[in-house]
Amino acid sequence: MLKPYFMRKYITLLLTLLFTYPTQAQSIPPQNATLSNYQYPFPVQFLELHLQQQTLKMAYMDLQPQQPNGKTVLLLHGKNFCAAYWEQTAKDLSKHGFRVIMPDQIGFGKSDKPNHFQYTFQQLAQNTKAILDTLHITKVAVLGHSMGGMLATRFALMYPEMTAQLILENPIGLEDWKLKVPYLPIDQWYKGELQQNYAKIKQYQLDSYYDGKWNADFDKWASLQASWTQSPDYPVVAWNSALTYDMIFTQPVVYEFENVKASTLLIIGQRDRTALGKANVPEAVRKTMGNYPALGKLTAQKIKNAKLVPIEGVGHLPHIEAYTKFITPLLAFLQQ
Fold first, then answer.
1. Are 100 and 94 within 8 A, CB to CB?
2. How many domains does the chain have?
């Protein structure tokens, strides 16, 4: 029988699970597929793209500094996020004279969610370049977080003449998961996405991103992601999410880091253990995946002119969890 102290702790935990999660979920207003009722921190513009026999709108923000230094930074979001989470980063970059471009990739944020689309990092890189071409921007520093790190790498490989600098913040794709994880059909990814809700999203982020810590900044992005699950539009959002999981799994960039020509900064939270498909392998294999301290060092060795900045005690989102430790080396690198 549990002692009174542990019984009280158990009851408190149980009440939290029973009431906190549902209450939070009920307080999250449902959002449609393009987040029409969610306000981004800066004005949103749209570029019309004609892709794969359909017309799609791609959203982006263009923050221009009051005192320009003549340089532009392109910020590329991760899979479970949108361009809005770059708010503080963009504000500080702008204060230092940088123009900041923040796109929502097709399938994410305020951009369209097509019913039928073949996702490739090459296609996303072309879409991103189309925004820069429209704005007559010919040179950028490219910063990618998580999935955005894979896209940033692909962009730098496809457009080396445009890529002044490359910054990878806890990028995924530093290893080839296909070597360890069985292939999961898109329909299976879709089935799993349809079962998402606020409680599951929060638990995943608690375990995978923040090591059990939680605050309002973390909750903001979990709640936004969960807002789709409350909407009639969620099936198409979930389908696009499944398609992009397949893209991430089947299109590694790990074999091409040696070809990156741009001066590169790796900002790596050392507590991160993110790896696609970990739940589908035995525990012994799982322990070998997502070892960011080792992967960061290995990647820095592969990329010519790479600098590694390890951040101890920080997980997958340094620019959310430990902002000062993120922005300080970023600004120093961009201003060199």
1. yes
2. 1
